[in-house]
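Format notes (please read before filing issues)

Several people have asked whether sequences and structure tokens are stored in separate files. They are not. Every record keeps both together, in the order shown below: the sequence lines, then the token lines. Line labels are part of the format and must not be stripped during preprocessing.
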Amino acid sequence: MDVVLWGVLPYLVVVTFVGGLVWRYRYDQFGWTTRSSQLYESRLLRIGSPLFHFGLVFVIGGHVVGLLIPEEWTASVGVTESMYHAGALGLGTIAGICTLAGIAILILRRRRTGPVFMATTKNDKLMYLVLTTTIVLGLATTVIAFSDGHDAHNYRESVSPWFRSLFVLRPDVDAMAAAPLQFHLHVLMGLGLFLLFPFSRLVHAFTAPVHYLFRPYIVYRSRDRRPIPGASAPKRGWDPVGTRDRDR
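Then the structure lines:
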């Protein structure tokens, strides 16, 4: 079972994730959207959306640092293990609470606002369930680590080596299997979230207006009707060749 969960399942998730994004882009570009409901209600949205998105940015950043950067690298720049865990627990708790509060407000808004609730699909409900459960399990690992103190499990010696080993196609199954139950549940729910990602509204995270950087400049015409000294009156588009705007 450990081989299936920690050695096979992650690659199946990656294949489904990439394949789902390609399929969605080719055959459902009109559905590649958040299906915004700001028109129906904006007060709670203005509170919940920034809380969720900004909190999520720090949560993702914390996962990147904790999973991808080896313990030896942080130690080489003078960051001790106690310093790292104190910062991770402090910032991780704040970011997790903000993210959870944001998603709770968004779910409350969706449930209480009639038109928004009517536009909620079964896919949306499943997405909210998986996303919220993943966040709660992540916070649970933080709370357990805080309560255990110095005896807390060091995930940088189990989960992190396993995660990095996936990139070299040699999954360290034993390292992940040695992690406590709360990490197993959090990772499995995270994998489930990535399975659902391409087929839900979460796909809008990959919608970035990159083409704005390369589009031509927009030329605006002035509405100022005052003539410029020494300049001839411009032609209007419907005037015959050789005529001028007699109103100027």
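For reference, the curators noted about this record: The chain is about 60% helix and 0% strand. The chain has a mean pLDDT of 85.
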